[in-house]
Amino acid sequence: MGSFAGRSGCAETAMAAIIDRYSCLLLDAYGVLLDKSGPLPGAVALIRYLNEISKPYYVLSNSASTLPEHMAAALAEMGLPIPQRQLITAGLLLVPYFQQHGLVGRRCIALGTQDSLAYVLRAGGTVVSPDTLGSVKAVIIADQTGFPLLEALDDTLSVLLRHFDRQEPIHLVLCNPDLIYPRASGRFGFTAGGLAAMIEAVLRERYPERAYGFVRLGKPSPGLFEEAASRAGTGDMVMIGDQLATDVLGANQFGIDSVLITTGLGLNAGTVPWERGIVPTYVLSSLHLPPLLKAN
Ligand SMILES: [Mg+2]
Fold first, then answer.
1. Which pTM was predicted?
2. What would the mean pLDDT of 1-15 be, rounded to a whole number?
3. Which residue of 205, 232, 244, 254 is 20 to 30 Å from 23, comparing CA positions?
4. What residues does the ion ligand 1 have nearby, CB within 5 Å?
């Protein structure tokens, strides 16, 4: 078998080399900096060091469950003091989406947390309950938590089928395309993308001749990378992530280098289909910095 680097043919690298090599670092959050149980090994020292040397970096998260100001506070609380403007979430991409598709002021269903609803409200949406009998223009799946899951999915599905049976269009928007996330070592959970996949399976069966599906805002789509490039003012960026299908594929498609960190979603379990051709520029086995580099 050998290491992932050995099997995929890409070079192993070290965090210090990555910091040197690129003007700006893009870091995934879950599976790279933290998991549900707290910061991952090396993350606290890495963020402290990047802040200390004023290295440009952004956290690119497919999350739409927490507003950036609340995320910044929660990260600081766990020893990861990342400025709010350096947190770019998929929830923020609702703003341009609503503007570009004429959804400002229109009725929509939003599934997620209170902060998810706040993202939709900030984008200009008029949020209505999933059990509405009226017409809606968009369904936004922002997060898998914060609502009665099966009841809300049933209601949302009913709204969709009533509209689509009459061929009335609805924008289907998925903030976080991830299917699963790491809860802790060896433990996984369904993410919003898994809920969208359930609805899409129903729509495929009911309307086989129509291509209904969710627009995916988060990685691997280019939106988060575009926002980062715009904020950073440079294209000399590298994406450091733990998932091939989102972080690495997204970076590859956007045309920047990528680093796969092998600490997140259990890559060493032999379950990763790297044969699909999604190959990172480098493989990294930990965030750890050499002792001399660590900030005091
Ligand atoms: Mg991740």
1. 0.90
2. 68
3. 244
4. 28, 30-31, 242
